[in-house]
Amino acid sequence: ETGVTQTPRHLVMGMTNKKSLKCEQHLGHNAMYWYKQSAKKPLELMFVYNFKEQTENNSVPSRFSPECPNSSHLFLHLHTLQPEDSALYLCASSQPPGQGATGELFFGEGSRLTVL
Amino acid sequence: AQSVSQHNHHVILSEAASLELGCNYSYGGTVNLFWYVQYPGQHLQLLLKYFSGDPLVKGIKGFEAEFIKSKFSFNLRKPSVQWSDTAEYFCAVNAHSNYQLIWGAGTKLIIKP
Question: What's the pLDDT band for A115 if we cut at 50, 70, 90?
Answer without folding.
Answer: very high
